[in-house]
Amino acid sequence: MAGLLEPDAALAQVFAAVPPARSVSLPPGDCLGLVLAADATACTDLPPFDRAMMDGYAIRLADAGAAVELLGEIAAGDGADRVPLQVGQAYPIMTGAPVPPGAEAVVPHEQTRRQGQQICLPERIRPGANIVPRAGECRAGHAWARAGAVVTPMTLAAALGVGAAHLEVHPRPRVAVIATGSELAADPSAAGQIRDTNGPMLGAMFQEAGASVQRQVIGDDAEALLAGLQSISDADVVVLTGGVSAGTHDEVPGVLRRLGAEVLFHKVAQRPGKPLLVARLGRHLLFGLPGNPLAAHLCACRYVLPALRRLARLPHIPVSGRGVLRTTLPANSEHTWFLPALIEGGSVLPLLPFSSADLVQPHQANAYLRLDPGAVEAPAGTEITYTRIGVDAWAR
Amino acid sequence: MAGLLEPDAALAQVFAAVPPARSVSLPPGDCLGLVLAADATACTDLPPFDRAMMDGYAIRLADAGAAVELLGEIAAGDGADRVPLQVGQAYPIMTGAPVPPGAEAVVPHEQTRRQGQQICLPERIRPGANIVPRAGECRAGHAWARAGAVVTPMTLAAALGVGAAHLEVHPRPRVAVIATGSELAADPSAAGQIRDTNGPMLGAMFQEAGASVQRQVIGDDAEALLAGLQSISDADVVVLTGGVSAGTHDEVPGVLRRLGAEVLFHKVAQRPGKPLLVARLGRHLLFGLPGNPLAAHLCACRYVLPALRRLARLPHIPVSGRGVLRTTLPANSEHTWFLPALIEGGSVLPLLPFSSADLVQPHQANAYLRLDPGAVEAPAGTEITYTRIGVDAWAR
């Protein structure tokens, strides 16, 4: 098997083939979790008017220490079109309300004293106290968020606050998932038929990564697969599972040749997932994953998800860490072996599958272990490196 | 201010008031990210038939080292109703196809040699080689996943593989978000009006945490708020923002009294977010968050999200870590101060807001710092503890 591509070289080839990120203009509410493609500029001042930060009284500084007459209350939501405040007067005012013309500070209730129809103000009042001046948080035209920033819930609130109708972002990657195999049936009542598990699993993984996903199932039929691939026009990434080996019914390599795809590599020195194929097909980056579910999962974690996140300009390096083996790890043979594991605190439990088709034993995995070719048996208690999988697996 | 509830005591009261988790039966595809409420039992054997793991030949062990006659090929998706395999014969067979009656191993192509119409088998063949026996991964009736496990994409695939039509899970928490304030307008063209930023921000935070969210905006009007709260029937958690202080137009405390709510606490020794109110209102847990956006964000991070995750039986303790200050942190006064910060690698950049209403400066925060009452100024270079915020902030 000398000459097979090593896993790290394969990943580097995938990264080099990721298409350029697109850029679109979307309403802020549709941008959560996406990355800004351009600096965002404020459309309006924030706040749009001098705003009271406390419930209290809008006052003139000249009245510090004096008693003042109260005018009509200003509530949040009221307009600012009041008679200008004169010395000897104060407006009762509520948090969030516009400060009236002439007012130089807002004094909170608890710093005042009632005296008949008047109130007594404290001796010392800081100019501008408890007023957020118009544009104090952000001025119209100011670049308040930088290209490359992720849109968080707080970013969404800030965008609405500064009057943004749209944000320029790298959109969700569009992924077409095609599960191939004549044995795949929605209701596997017929002998020899099984349920498609790879399509839903991969769709869920890509959706968790922020992609929008379209799925189809196609039998082991070259013409149907050709038609299926030709029907995909708007996907950034196409992910096939099954049909990538060298068997009589493995139609993927032949169909890709007929479509003029540029195959970047086919087969990687790893298990599971040795038959992995990666190609450029027109504008699409195409992954041919093995049909064995665990192999499809590993290849999606290790090659497809980083590509999707890179396409969205999100962090794409998974978190790794070190922990202590709870059980013995068997020796490895000639290829790099990726093994699902459950990390709990500092302990690492390898979840040995029954075969590379098996997802039942490893379904709780939150990491993969990587065993180099020829690695010797590692007894329980050995310290080992793991790489996280899942939505919270990406280093910032 | 002696006698105000401390932040940790407030959080403990919130946890004690989280309602019991509900349990529902949902199709596996709707369970992603949810926690199993009961052990999941396999409905069918997996695989449902003896399955070939490789492309090759289904053979009899007695033929090891001999040449055998080839019968008709068995492809994936074919039925298993073949004439039983006799000594001297082999079926060509594809990965995923059902192994025919009588076959004792599958020998891959590359271990065989073509000899006219026959093929020569290797000398040594392991019994059962390259066959996953029926139920090898999981037997019908077996509890393949335990209560408390999170449904991952792999769990989804395993559930479909073992024929599960439904899974018993703790459902998404249902949250009703009510932004209060007469100044809130969808299009703030009128003077004194502003856009609602808290409602969309909180909705996004709770959706990121897996909750299903319904939002409404209500003016500072006790009757409207009363009607709004009475109209909520199916929410687990109600989150109000604004109107929780002691001002003339802070209608929340009075309306809660009229509704017979049990107020657990009102006001916490913290900034921002001192006016926080938490109550039981019938079956609902109710949070009255301040209307200042940053205060609402802090209270949602620190009190609401952990409650929602606990309700869903998800991990609810945020990740914390230590890093080195890039800028000086000012001294703190009498209450615990929570300050947004950006963590990059091991460096901690405090994002000092202009006021507790300000989300523009801190919008890239991925953590909060916590300063104890009376903490002295901390110069750049000081090591400090932070607590993560966001979807990937929860310790497992």
Descriptive report:
Two copies of one chain form a homodimer. In chain A, strand 22 (336-344) and strand 23 (347-350) form a beta hairpin. With 396 residues, chain A is of the alpha+beta class. Chain A starts with 6 loop residues before the first helix and ends in an 8-residue tail after the last strand. The first copy, chain A, has helices spanning 7-17, 153-161, 198-208, 222-230, 252-258, 293-311; strands spanning 24-26, 35-36, 40-41, 51-52, 56-59, 67-70, 89-93, 105-108, 113-115, 118-120, 131-132, 143-145, 167-170, 174-180, 212-218, 237-241, 262-266, 270-271, 277-281, 284-289, 320-325, 336-344, 347-350, 367-371, 383-388. Chain A folds into four domains: 7-22 and 172-311, Molybdenum Cofactor Biosythetic Enzyme, Chain A; 26-43 and 139-170, Molybdopterin biosynthesis moea protein, domain 2, CATH 3.90.105; 51-132, Molybdopterin biosynthesis moea protein, domain 3 (Molybdopterin biosynthesis moeA protein, domain 3, Beta Complex), CATH 2.170.190.11; 320-388, Beta Barrel (Beta-clip), CATH 2.40.340.10.
Q: What attributes does this structure have?
A:
homodimer, 396 residues, alpha+beta, Molybdenum Cofactor Biosythetic Enzyme, Chain A, Molybdopterin biosynthesis moea protein, domain 2, Molybdopterin biosynthesis moeA protein, domain 3, 4 domains, 6-stranded mixed β-sheet, 6 helices, 25 strands
CATH fold type of the largest domain in chain A: Molybdenum Cofactor Biosythetic Enzyme, Chain A
Mean pLDDT score of chain A, rounded? Answer: 93
CATH superfamily of the largest domain in chain A: MoaB/Mog-like domain
The CATH architecture term of the largest domain in chain A is 3-Layer(aba) Sandwich
For the terminal residues of chain A, how far apart are their CA atoms? 37 Å
Q: Oligomeric form of this entry?
A: homodimer
Which chain pair shows the most residues in contact?
Answer: A-B, 100 and 99 residues
Number of strands of chain A: 25
| Poorly predicted spans of chain A | none
Strand fraction of chain A: 25-35%
How does the helix and strand content of chain A classify structurally? alpha+beta
Q: How many H/I helices of chain A?
A: 6
Q: What value does the Rg of chain A take, in angstroms?
A: 31 Å
The biggest beta sheet of chain A reads: 6 strands, mixed
Global geometry of chain A: elongated
